[in-house]
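Note to self: user wants both folds in one dump. Writing first protein now.
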Amino acid sequence: MASEGMDAFCGSPFWNASVTWYTNRPDLTECFQKTVLVWAPCVFLWVFAPLETYYILNSKFRNIPWNWLNISKLFLTVVLIGLSIADFGYALWKNDQEREVNSVEYYTPLIKLVSFILTAVLQWYNRQRGMRTSGLLFLFWFLLLLFGIVQYRAELNKAIDDAENEDYFTFITYLVYFPVVVILFLFNCKSDAAPRFSEYATPENPCPEQGASFLSRLFFGWFDALALKGFRRPLETKDLWNMNPEDTAHEIIPRFDKYWQKSVEKSANVPSAKASFHKTSASVDLVGKRSKKTQASVLPAVCKAFGATFLFGSLLKLVQDLLTFASPQILKLLISYVSDDTYTEEWKGYFYAVLMFLAASIQTLFLAQYFNRMFLVGLRIRTALVSAIYRKALRLSSAARKDSTVGEIVNLMSVDAQRFMDLTAYLSMLWSAPLQIALALYFLWDTLGPSVLAGLAVMIILIPVNGVVANRVKVLQIRQMKNKDERVKLMNEVLSGIKVLKLYAWEPSFEQQVLKIRDKEIHVLKQAAYLNAATSFIWSCAPFLVSLVTFATFVLSDERNILDSKTAFVSLSLFNILRFPLSMLPMLISNLVQASVSIKRMNKFMNSEELDPNNVTHDNSEKHPLLIENGTFSWGPEDDPILRNINLHFSSGSLVAVVGSVGSGKSSLISAFLGEMDKLTGRVNTKGSIAFVPQQAWIQNATLQDNIVFGRSMDQTVYKRVVEACALKPDFDMLPGGDQTEIGEKGINLSGGQKQRVSLARAVYNNADVYFLDDPLSAVDSHVGKHIFENVIGPSGLLKKKTRVLVTHGITFLPEVDQIVVLKDGEVTEMGTYKELLEKKGAFADFLLQHLQEGSGDDSTSQADLDELKQQLESTMGAEELQQKLIRARSRISESDSGSVSEKRSLSRSGSLQRQTSVESNAEKRSLSRLNSEKDGAVKAPVVGEKLIETEKAETGSVKWGVYSHYLKSIGLVLAVSTLLFNVLFQAFSIGSNMWLSRWSTDLPDDGTGQEASKRDMYLGVYGALGVGQAVSVVLASVMTFVGGLKAARVIHLELLKNMMKTPLGFFDVTPVGRILNRFSKDVDTLDTVLPMIIRGFLSCLVSVVATLFVISYSTPIFISVIVPVGILYYFVQRFYVATSRQLKRLESVSRSPIYSHFGESITGASTIRAYGVQSRFILENESKVDFNQICYYPTIIANRWLAVRLEMVGNLIILFAALFAVMQKENSSEGDVGLSISYALQITQTLNWLVRMTSDVETNIVAVERIKEYSETPQEAEWDIPSSAPPPSWPDEGAVDFKDYQVRYREGLELVLKGVTFSVKGGEKVGIVGRTGAGKSSLTLALFRIIEAAGGSILIDGQDISKMGLHALRSRLTIIPQDPVLFSGTLRINLDPFGLYSDDDIWRALEHAHLKSFVKGLAAGLSHEVSEGGENLSVGQRQLICLARALLRKTKVLVLDEATAAVDLETDDLIQRTIRTEFSECTVLTIAHRLNTIMDSNRVIVLDRGNVVEYDTPDALLQRKSSVFYGMAKDAGLL
């Protein structure tokens, strides 16, 4: 009916089948040409114009300059408008002439006219709004061109056939019109010039995508240049482009933030939790309700911020899904064509072949665009989440910070945010997979009828099986993550405390601990491997099982059902389409499960408690800059208060000292002022900017200058003054790069004192109003301390006008401060000036008494000071009372369980001191424990480059064969060969079954009746048997791959671990922990989980491609001629891609490390960052690091799409040729062969793509093996045990130490640190070693333990040359109490005796002598008390005492003390000194001293200067000689 209406509309027939279809010269009717072929492009234009308008309105660019391209386009469009007007006018004129005019002659020119005007308007606005290319206009001209060809041909034919054409006007206009359309189409293949104005900042290396035309974007042609560059030479970061502005953190984060804030507010407004969101100053009563606050989830915010692009991508996916089903339908027609000998129209076969090619090509383009969109969304989500996690980490409250270690937070960022990103590309499968399954079943019903239900039943049965397996995998996954976290955490501690492990010879014990966790991991992974084999079995055999059951039901259910080629192969290609969604669903489910675990972890973190900004107010109208009224503070809402009833106010410009014994709450007081503690009651107010020097200096991995300037503008004069005042000038002069020397991660190459001074210099340079100085003088030598007090802190220092709060243990400077606050057990007991407090005779007088009693306990207290102190005390309390008090104090101290320890007991439970470091975090402390190379004057880096830490280098070029062979050797020959064998076997069975099907479907009687029953059953039986063969071989192949992969992972990890344990300490100095840890976490994880999967995929793809080519060549032998050229094309595309992609992947993984390092560093120094108020600068730094990582990652995404488009086109060519040859050889080939070859060809597109991707994935992931191999082959230290030269069991008996002309340097090519040192120490002597910073004191101890090996000379202990024996034999017979107390997480017992060599009694005895017995007895778990990471839950003093207990337990004849007293208060110091005097009286004790008074009672003193022994005599003898260096040092320290 409609056709008749159209006939009238045109005045000629609209459709004529005999003209168009049943003919050897097909053509379309004139009416069809003038209506559908013109209207369709115009309708397309009008439908999508609103979308184009949306893009134009939202464009951030403006004003493209006029140029020949846009002028030409506009001009030609105007020409077309003119032609349309002419055509319309001609129709009117004809009407005037009373000639016959049909409606079509009015409407078509009008429709064209309006459409062309619209294109002109769009072009105009595109230019104005900076749109350089338009997809809509490109497609509009393309459709006009495509459809116009038909009319153009018809017009020409008409002119040739009919010379008397009276309608020559329309003929001429059409001849002008069509070439103009062609030219406009070509012009639209180019993009316009760059716009003059952009709302974004102009990047120096803009992404070429910005200026790419629509065509180039469609095929990713703009990536060609980079692919070529990457093929010619390995890419470097400078070759990469900046991110598109809309993908930078700067644009993405505000978008995400807006919705996240809304989520937070929404969840905060749940009625029961009103009070919980902002804790008021007295919210103790509300604490209980806090749990009711519902968690805000990141998911809604992510969806709202990035959902639009995702939806657009899903639309593209929908089109692609629908197109997938075109191919089987065309195949059906093609088989009918080949099998029907009555066909005369040859063109139809070619038409079907081309149609198949087109369907596949359009699918390719849609799929590529879909993935591109999805990955971009993933990229944006990752940027948003990483930044959100980072900013949250800077705001965490102390209580929340305890819940998650640095490692866990970094994991959120590295693993969980990445999971999100990986998921986005597959999320659409949630709706796409069911849609594909439904469509496939619909078409199958059409072909096979109800028999399909049998196949469907099989599928439905398999789904729950899959579900069960996926669930089990999820459980294993969580266990695996737990084990991995545990192992990485332990490795982190081992690497951070490696110096201690080496000094104590404890490596084997910790190696065993790591391997124990690793065995648990491998066990879990093994189970997962078998489950994976089950899933791969299900997914490989499901389609076959389904087709077997369906075909069996089909032929057995009804005699009349004949399985001919059309039925068999169309069904087969539909079953193949089913395979993908069916296999994706389980994978998707497991990915979703992983992502949901990640979301939970992220939500928990993102909802954890933040520091309450109301803890501290900043009211500038207050009179005093610092004030606390009725303050009670705790470290967390559930913890006991640490500070109680605090009422303090300090006047402007005053210097306030805070004193008190260990654990009295001094550091906590500063934290309370900084807002780091939970304020339970009262009010805190600070006025003005703040600078903070934490007790444990936090140093960034940057140059010294950057650390001091800390983001402020550089002012040379101020800077110089600050450096000199902080006594850093001499240190800078010693360093090869001066203040441009790069400090390693966590300040590795600075000594404790230097770090403390850099931290102080940073505060001074910051020129704040208020200064909080948490014991800044504890780690520095006495004369330096004096210098700093005079020049910086004291009444005449740089800070004299500022308000200063100084926590101190020393008493030297107390008379000079304006006010002293005495803390005891978290309460202020006294306040006042020095004089006032002395007169009160209260706690402060006791504090001084204690000092007086310990007399020489602190080098900063000279004899003169002590005398003065004694006089002051006598005058205030009378000589007699003083004597009594002193006697009492003595007896109190000599009791082994001294008061200080019981005080400490109270403290470590409440945990005041645990904070002192937890804020600064253990990360910082480890630094000290590393070789303090530079403080021993070792010029620590080759002068060539002042960088201590070499930047991590990305390997370049293809992965060496050695790496593959290393991996294969680790797998083992048998497993490797059998894996390959079973893969080949699987394909053989698969091909066999399909060829059998081809034979079956063509073996039909000519009369059209079905096969006889026996023959049919024989065919069916063999078909089934071949299927069983497939199933068995696929399971075996899978199991072999995974078991082999795990064996390799285990072997390679073991090599890495063993090697790292045996690597000399110097290596850890120049290699950041993060970098080594990356090998143990990311790379080992790749080996465990990723590589086996990828190798499995690679092998099956490879075998499958070979099989496909074999089948097509077998059924249409002429196809072999195409294989070679197509193969060459494929090879080139693949080489280009792999070279570029591999290097991009390497750059990306190198650019990822800085994010984590900076992240870990920021979390560690969060309290410092907050105190200085520089959060925004650090957030920006984090964003720029993330952006840089994305710059390296984005080209990888594009490279994948670039490859996909090109390779799938190669695959589409194979389809085209397979179909063309089938048509050409119609006479010689059976329909079974055609069905077989084309159904195989249809699969090749995806397989080819996967093969290259897998090849590349194998290459990029084998890099993990390469990176681990690199660290498994680092040079090793000497043998641990050499049985042939083992010393006797009782060695050393006396402990006599002889240095003979001993020389040592830190690394090859550096100067000597000890230059031929000769001296001998008799057994049992106590020898002090002194010298200025950098004299080589620590080098001496390192040499004794052979941490650094001799460059000349020797060291003998009891006559045995230590260089001849095994390292462990040596180190286990010496004892050291190192400078920094390093503890490991685990029980107290493990910390004291990791090998379990001693009985409980021994350990208790050691604890008693170390004054810790009552403390440990008081702990609920006793010796099994868990020590947290880095010993966070013990005070610094307690940690030092545990190190003492270690020494007491080993009790060897030689004991080395390395400045152990530097960071400890006087009480602990005194305890240690006294224990050493009593317990080690028989032993040789070498003490490296900062504080001269600690060694005044030694038998002899060694004075070192610049690596030489300049003096060696008794202290008294040296003091007699006024010219001696020692005398000068004693004088400086005020001991004379």
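First done. Writing the second protein, which came from a different request thread.
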Amino acid sequence: MESTELDSTLTESAIRESGLITLSLTVTPVLSYALAHNRINVVGRVGVDNRGPAVREAVLRLEVISAGDTLGTARDLLVDLAAERTATFTDVSLTVDPAAMLLINEQRPAEIRASLLVGGAVVATTGEPIQLLAAQQWIARPVDLALEMLSAHVLPNHPEVAVLLGEAAAALEARTGSAAMPGYQSGPDRVDQVAEAVFVAMRARGIRYATPPASWADDGQTVRTPGEVLGTAADGIASGGVGTCLDTVVVMAAALEQAGLHPLLWVVAGHAFLGYWREEETLGAPALTDVAEVINLIDLDLIRLVETTQVTDRGAGTPVTFAQAQPSPYLEWLANLDTVIGVVDVVQARRTHILPLPARTVTADGTVIVTEYRPDAGTADAPGGDVPGAHPAPDTQASTAETESTEPTSTARVTPPRISQWKNALLDLSLRNRLINFTERGALALTVPDRHLADVEDLVTGGTGLTLLPADRMSTTDKERGIRFGRDLPVDQLAAVLADKKAVYADVTDTAYATKLRALAYKARTVVQETGANNLYLAFGSLVWTVNDRELRSPLVLVPVLLEPAGRGGDYRVRLDESGASTPNYCLLEKLRQQHGLTIEGLANPAGDAGHVDAAGIDLAAAFRATREALLAAGLPYRVEETLDLSILQFAKFRLWKDLDENWQTLAGNSLVNHLVHTPTQPFVDPVPLPEAADLDALGAECPVPGDSSQLAAVAEAIAERTFVLEGPPGTGKSQTITNLLTRAVYEGKKVLFVAEKRAALQVVQARLNEVGMGPFALDLHDKASKPAAVRAQIRQALEHEVTVDGQGLKNDLDVLGTARRSLARYTDRLHEQNSAGLSFYSARTAQLAADDDVRPLPVPADLPARLTADELAELRRMLRDLPDVTDPARPRPQHPWAFITTPPAAPLDLATVTRAALELDDALAALPRADETAGPDAKAAPAHVVAAGVVAAAASPTELVTLSSLAAADRVPLATLDGTRTPDWAAAAQAAEQATTAFVQAEHPAFGVLEPGALRLEAASLHRDAQAADASGFFGRRGRRKAVLARLAAELQPGAKLSLGSLSTVTGQLADSQAQLDALRTRVRAVDGVSIADDWNPLLAGAETGQTGRDELAARLAWLRWAGGVVASEHRDLGDDFVAALRDYLDAGTQPDAALSAALGRALLALQAVMTATGAGPAAVAGWAADGGLVAVWSRGRDERDVQAPGLPTLTRWIALLEHLEPLTRLGLTAAHTAVLRGEVDAEDAGLAFEKGLATASVAERGAATTLDQFDAAAQNRSITRFTTSSGAVRRHLPTFIPYSVLRRRTIGATDAAGETAGNAEATARLGLLKRQVDRQRGGMGVRELMHEFGDLITDILPCMLMSPESVARFFPAQAGLFDIVVFDEASQVRVSDAVGAMGRARSVVVVGDSKQMPPTSFAESTIGSGEEHGDSLEFVRDEESILSECVQAQVPSKWLSWHYRSQDESLIAFSNRAYYRDRLSSFPAPHHGVDAAGSDADAAPTGSAGYGVSLRRVDGQFLRSGKGKTLRTNPVEAQAIVAEIVARFAADPEGVPSIGVITFNVQQRALIEGSLRDSGDDRIVHALESEADGLFVKNLENVQGDERDTILFSTAFSADASGRLPLNFGPLNLPGGERRLNVAITRARRQVIVFSSFDPEDLRAEETISAGVKDLRAYLDLAAGGADGLASPLRQSGALDRHREEIAEALRERGFAVQTDVGLSDFRVDLSVATAGAPGHPVMAVLLDGPIWAARRTVSDRDGLPVEVLSRLMGWPAVERLWLPEWLGDQGAVLDSLDEKLTALDAARQARESAALA
């Protein structure tokens, strides 16, 4: 749809009245002081339905209205609304001012109101009614949010709580001998004692009981403070307060929290009671309404309850004891769970940032003291550790015997706190650790006949599998004998089963066997995948001992095993994990050493002198004997039992702990480790300096895997050995980046360590290294591959590896690639290279299109954009912006009275001089004839006067006035004569006359040798006759007669000249000839019309009056005639036509000169000159000013406005101010624009727009010429792209041989010289020989650790890339600083800091790759494996820990960002996460399909089993089973069956292949149910797909799906409404702090499709009633799944500006009948034009990409011209992707459209053919 904007014609009132925009609102229905104090957002979502045009920069106002006023401050948000769309805003946040809420003293109604303002006016509004609670009031609605907020009323910060804890400490000391309150460090019994002491202390206060309200939901209660409940205890005398059940619960909870315990608040109908954790756990959510799980925890004695009303005076009789107060809540209130409202976990609430309210106390003098809750800063480094703000009671000390530390007591080194913290995280020696406290619930007990335990160990370590039999699988004979279980069989029979069947009985019934063993195998496999370490062990033997009077059982010897089914439907068996080794329980040994100083050398070092190792492994009998002897020697009454258990034990952490404990000083040599240890709060300073900016295009050509610019920038930084964080959201190519990084690092001779917890992550990188030829240089030491035989095989393969390379072919392809790349880069530079005005070819064109059609462009010189500086441009823009300020007072127009002044004066004007000159001009002009004046008494003069007045009025310039004055003073020449002067004949005659005159003058006249030219006045002929006669006369008369003739010539003789009488006749003859010539000349001159000469005209003689010669007079006359003839001609250059016409009339009307007019005009001209001189005006400016109306009239009309006698000449000063303001226009050459402004032709308000329009137009031409884009060749450009992509692929095909070849050439170890001899020094050669002998051994030989310690340097030379887990690094490599140049962590968000330190410390630089918006490392309370079958898997407690990624981010390590997302083949798959978690920073690619199945149908309506795209919701009528027994507990069988049916159908639809499907569940029970159902489906392909590590089928829960991806993800929410029809808001781990990160992981696993199976509708999920970000995001995601992309929450502001160039093309295509959408996409990468044909408008077939600024801003040629086209066409499935270049479009739009039309027509024909074929 073409974009539209709200324009000025659609007013705010029109919008309001038309109802084009409506609002909807979802809010929290109850507001409380607790909500306000904790800054909880009370608005869930705002919907804005806009049925009109687009609206930009509207204001969305949110406010709480109470009693007609806004409570606190309204929240204003700027929003953009798309045309005819509904926008849903979820990122709004309205919090209430706590100070305002504190003042509310009673419950009252209010309203949350949303308003939309456009232009400051409200155009739409809506409101939702709410209830405001009194400041301390609590009410149980909405129930989830109310329960979460109840923890805010638990005030450990209240001063009276500290006093109470002091009293409790005294009671504790009196009862137990110790006042210590060590939290959970001393076990659950001490926890009970502390809780009892608090109970006793409260009871001693004499608290009076108050009856609670009848209904928590209807009435609520004002919660009393600890001071009000406890009263005071002055001088040991208790003065009790008063409290309800709820009051006493929150007070006792506050005391327990302050004591370091984890209290629970239970709220039931009409009552409340307390619970507390006996172990350091939490519920995982701040509050739960579904408490069935928690009841199980009570049954398991992990939680105990307390009836706190028993501390009051409620009831008569003897006060009950603490022990009596514990069972009553369970018996009285939990028998019927329907009465339970919920339970609140206070500590988990604190972790979710629900903080206690400020405690207010009043001193005796009335001073109010506010005590704020201050979280303990010391816990900031230990997420999941002690609760912030939970401080021990005052004056208490923890005894050394009762506290536990993992720090050895004998160490002499001062260990930094951070090192101690990491060590504690690695080695948990508390009773939570199953290696210390090995409970029955945590193990599967195996029955072994007496004295045969060592046989089992020998059997397993010898490589024979051990089959596990169900405990009740008895023969008929045994059953008849009454034997029900294997453990009851005789010893010899059990021994026979072991010997013959290689089997033992497991403590699990046949009914539960498959479920239990399948679940255990899955968990063990998951641990390996997640951590790279196998934690499944056979535990041989147990030490039974005590800690703090608590009996414990701890395993002694651990043998790593694998659990696998013996066959389909058969038994399970365990076999030795060859990658591990039998080992003592070092955790137990360390605990014994710390607790008792006991060292058991025979157990600790079974291979040492005191140890005992037999042929198959550890000699168990000897090890047990050594243990017993050590215990006896130490006098410890502990015993060793010969037991056998199968269990998942976190033993791998011990190796990491030991590595850190022994080597932390070495490891801290790494700069990052040192920073994290000593200066984690300061910015990290990398010791490696920043490298020069890399040529990413060149680097891309050298990388074997295609990479975008963000990936290549990371590679460049890494190979420079810089330490940094690389944030890579899902699908951004982290593995590709790592592959390029590892390859380039190895190529440059570096040693690289790649570390990943998950096997899957390593396998991806390993597969890619194999693809690019680098596999032989990478050693896999992760888990399975770390078997000695496998390691030796890898080393041997690396030593034998050879490769050949096509060097010439690579060079040629590199040359072609470089040429094409440079060509494409030049085009980008040229297209977007800015001129001096800041405009490029592209931006100038878009500016042209953006300009208002109604605004006339200012004329801008063509060369201005190139020569304009930034300062000059800014000056122009400022000038035009401020133009109205000077034009408004000056009022510029063509005939402004001062408009003849066009340039500002160089110096300030002399206003007095201007005034005098102007007044004189007024008078002078007034004296000129005017048409409205009478001619006087002489009527005959009237016509002449009128004509004269007319020509005066027509004169519009000084030139015209001068012309008129000249003609008026001159003799009149007939107009015909003047007109004749312009004819050829006259011109010829005049020219002939002039030429003849000139010839006469220039001719030789001998007579004038002695005579003056004036002699020509004489009668030369007569003189000559007389002279001749004298010559002819006689001798005597001749002389006299000659003298007579001479006398007549005497006056003309030249001075000093003498004329002899003898030559007289000669001279007169010559004179006569000259005179004859003159007469002929005169005749010719007189023949020229308009020329009259005197009879004595002599061209040789100057006139007495003029002083000119006759020739000069003639020339002047002819010139005047020509001039006069010219000025009376039409279209004169300097004279107006009107003036010429009037002048002709004037000349035609008179025959005599008009001296009076000439004189008057002379005066006027003098006055005008004076004005011009005084003002600096020029003649041309005056002429232009007076052109319309004549100078006299224009000047006269402005007389009043000019008002020259006004003080200060205001009109003139304003005009001068305008000229001065416009000075930049003239200075910069914009003279036409300057004139237009002065003439008033430019609207001052639009002057800036007019200039920008003119500048854009000029810039298009200037840029086109300057960059030669005006000669652009589109075909050549497209050929360059083809060459680039083709040669890129060709080069990349060379690299898998060229890079290995280069690495091998540089290898010195094992290389041979030209003679075939091994190169290198003798020692290295010898060691290499030893290594080769080791790797060639088939049996025996060194283990992996021994190989690495002995030959590590050689091996890392041969295999410079190591692929490992953190545990395998500590296991195999010595702690040596700088062992590797670079360590790269993958999936670092799941690598604990403590796990990562060892790997970091072995390298010089660190690259931490991960996604901080995905799951952190998670620790689970170890799962139960017990034999019971009634409960299924028990609740798993989840605790998030700090990752190396988040640690580095917090420690301000520099970071880089991968920005291109490639995984999702439908953009909606990543759009939610991009918006919700990545701030729209990811660039994803639109697809032509969206939400459709493979056949093109709507995915929501697609049948089961059909593949599709996008996110969809599949609603099922399932029920989540919250209670009951069996394997379906806490599952949704209907939903599970729907998912199984979907998978079965997809497998059936693809009989040849294996569909790529992943199933993700919220909990482990649903996961187990779905996987079990799939395994029982009867389809071997499905079972095989589940077992395979290939891209097939998986079923996982939220916690372990990170790193996986599949084409289709089936998401099972499982949860449903409860019996009351209400959906509880407990979604397991999603409710945890950071639960949204788990959701992010789950919803970003799909490549093509996500189907969310849900047993509830999105609107059933009342996300506004909880603070859980995970639940809120789930609701938003379900909206997306239900509504498609339209359900995606809208950003407040729309991205990007309107691209007019794009819209112009779109409109042209629409005019040709195509369906076009512009700016298509859900990220910052957009398809500029999505085009569909008229036959199928809903199915786009062509993506058109333009070359705009966003395209140009991409950092590499590949990002611009390679990657997008390839991804869109190959991955996203666009049938056609076209590039359209701006110069091509401007050059020939018709040709471009014709080409697109032709291609679209062909695509449509192909579509029709496919449809026809499908129908056939």
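Dump finished. Worth passing along: The mean pLDDT is 87.
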